[in-house]
Amino acid sequence: MSFVKCCFESTEGHDFLDSLVQKCTDPGCCCGCCSALRPRYKRLVDNIFPASPQDGLVKSNMEKLTFYSLSSPEKLDRIGEYLFQKASRDIYRRRHGFVIIAMEAMDQLLVACHSQTLNLFVESFLKMVQKLLESTDPQLQILATQSFVRFANIEEDTPSYHRRYDFFVSKFSAMCHSNHNDKPTRENIRLAGIQGLQGVIRKTVSDDLVENIWEAQHMDKIVPSLLYNMQTAEKYETVSCMETDTRDGLDDDPPRLAEACLRELVGRASFGHIRSVLRPVLTHFDRHELWVPTEFAVHTFKIIMFSIQAQYSYSVVEALLQHLDAGVGTRVRAARAAVLSSIVAFAAGDSVGPSVLEIINNLLTNLRASVARDSEKESDEKLYQEALINALGEFADHLPDFQKIDIMMFIVSKIPNQRGKGTKADSMLQSILLKSLLKVGSTYRTTELSKAFPAAFLDALLRLSGAGEAATRALLQRILHTLLDRRGNAAALAAPTVDYAKLGLIVEKCSRPDLIFISKHGYAIFSSLYDGLQLESNTAENVCAIYTTLALLCVELASEETVCDMLQLILSMQQSALSNPVLSTAQACRVHGAALALLALVPHVLLLPALQEYVAQIIEARREEAPHLLPPLLEDYDLSPSKMPNKLPYLMIDQMALAECLKACGVEARLQPAAPYAGAALAQRHSWVEAGAAQGRDSLADISAGPNAELDSANSSPGVQRHCGGGESVSLEALRRAASGPSEAERREAERRRATLNDTFRTAPFDHLLLITQPKYEIKEKLEEIFNSLSEEPLLGVGVGGSPAGKPTPCTKYFPELFLY
């Protein structure tokens, strides 16, 4: 009876009858029964263990156990539980050899058995792995990790809803931070920890039914563990994902394996999980002060940008932008901005639509905040600002040209438009944003001027040309140089000179679209540059910068149709240097030198021999008598009264001589008398200069005739001429012409004048139209003149309180408030 009871207690379910037929051969049985009466799976498990652990796993018996497991998959959970019990006893007894054999057997069963009941066996397997990881023996920990990695590479047929990996995440993360005294052992433990984390990621990240590995409690352990191992590398070598594919599985170095694991983690992250990875990265860098120096930070974020899905790359830039001002310390902010500038180019290619302007706006917002800090307290913000500007340039460099124009217009809209003296913060912000604009403009490749300078963008730039700070105005000119220079001539034209033969300038004929552009906007551009030369705060740098801009315009717009406009501007510059009382002697000499340098450039780009000879004569004369009126431009001139520019009229550029030189070269001269300021002297082609030639009413010719000129209403009727002589008789031929109307040629001429007038009002700037349509006299003054000249007869007869008869009384104005002036 006791025999049956003992065997029943040592067996399970239906295996009892099967065990009774076996013969008892185990003398160590506690109740007298034998192992033959035990379940078959236990006997098969027991048989795989050798007498001595050094002999290793009994392969023949292992094959029997594997065959039994495949034929009876319902026994897998019991086999796994029994192996776990045996391994637990061996761990407690420190019989590590048998533990290794048990783990090897479980690995083989795990690989061989693929069935729907595998989940039950996996529970025992994971319990055994956990048991080994909890031991203090590094060998068992590494063994358990290797088994877990093999398990992670197995694709299960059915998902598991209840399985949790939080213990493994914590344990593997702790192994990544191992500080074992023996260096090889320490590296092996860390390597095993990284491999374990990689296995957890592969097992969980692609299965939505298991535990969410993206939660903060897991990412706060995984990401810092990987970064901790990556920062121990001797040097940081960032390669793209394509180059790392060939190295997978071959890394036996913790930093390299940690990098591969981080790449895999970031590469598997979806849009909603990117922030879950980035947040612990930023926190780790802050806590351990890893931003300075920037090598490791740049290396890490480049790895992230290489690994992340392309369409999500801009989210990394946004996260770093939002983190720029976190914490205190200018050096840290500058380091973060430097990291941003190194990775922002990766996001540019895949950023479209609002994300582009959002990144630009964030950069500009940080720049404004930096300027505010810099103006309140003199802190070291320059490195931070330069890094942000570099980031802006790097981002724009990888965008298409049309987006660069949009970005430049967006930046210009943020620049405070102040003239004269302003606050220090506004001046600094203006300068910083112009530097940003210059950085973006340097990445733009100009093809047509009309595309590089949309009307709104050009107007905004020209408005900024009157900034109060001289350095800001010079910066604006550099922006114009960048956008105007299409053939690489800016460096050669950086300083005024009269010898252009050695510069090797590249000159091409002006295209038709560029001619249309300059005919439409030339007046505004030349007026702005002319006004820039009249400021008393100008330095030699400002004059040189304006010279370079004008020289580039001359080279880029080289054409016989534009030469007169350029010469007209040169004459106006010379006149302003002679007559503008605001300019000092040194400033006047600089303007004279820049004007002559521009005049020497014109025959060089257009091949006008007569003009070139005339310019050579002026240069030679000035070299002998007035070298201060020649380039180079100096900051100060020590001149005697006799050497003042106003005292040397015979060395000046003569308008009539220029007209004769142009005529000798076959170019139609349309030069107007030079004015001391811009005014009508800078009128563009197809404007009121040509309209005045038609002698229309209130044209430029009429305005220049003075206030006493008589209005000629007949000018509005083509072909009808009015004779000024009061007693002249009208001839019969004149009456016949008046009756028959204008001839065909006169009609064509009238149509041409009408088209010219219409084109002028469509294209000329408003300021120019306002200037040339000023009335010849003030209406109030004219009315006063009329009233004073009027006389009337007295209303009362002679002797009734009036004047003597025959002598008119001047009209007396009663109630003047009732009169219209």
Q: Mean pLDDT score, rounded?
A: 77
Strand order of the largest sheet: 1-2
The major β-sheet equals: 2 strands, antiparallel
Task: Tell me the number of strands.
Answer: 2
Distance between the termini: 140 Å
Low-confidence stretches: 1-35, 245-250, 676-729, 792-810
Sheet/helix structural class: mainly alpha
Beta fraction: under 5%
Q: Could you estimate the helical fraction of the residues in percent? A: 55-70%
Number of discrete helical segments: 36
Question: Rg to the nearest angstrom?
Answer: 46 Å
Assign an overall shape.
Answer: elongated
Family: Belongs to the EFR3 family.
Organism: Vanessa tameamea (Kamehameha butterfly)
Protein name: Protein EFR3 homolog cmp44E isoform X1
InterPro entries: ARM-like, ARM-type_fold, EFR3-like_ARM, EFR3_Homologs
Model description:
- With 821 residues, this protein is mainly alpha-helical.
- 59% of the residues lie in helices and 0% in strands.
- The protein contains 36 helices and two strands.
- It has helices at residues 2-9, 15-20, 40-47, 59-71, 76-92, 96-112, 118-134, 138-152, 166-176, 183-204, 216-230, 241-244, 254-268, 274-287, 295-307, 313-322, 330-348, 354-376, 382-397, 401-414, 424-441, 449-452, 455-463, 470-484, 512-532, 540-556, 563-579, 585-606, 609-625, 655-664, 688-693, 700-704, 732-740, 744-763, 766-772, 779-789, and strands at 791-792, 809-810.
- The protein has a two-stranded antiparallel sheet.
- Residues 1-35, 245-250, 676-729 and 792-810 have low confidence and may be disordered.
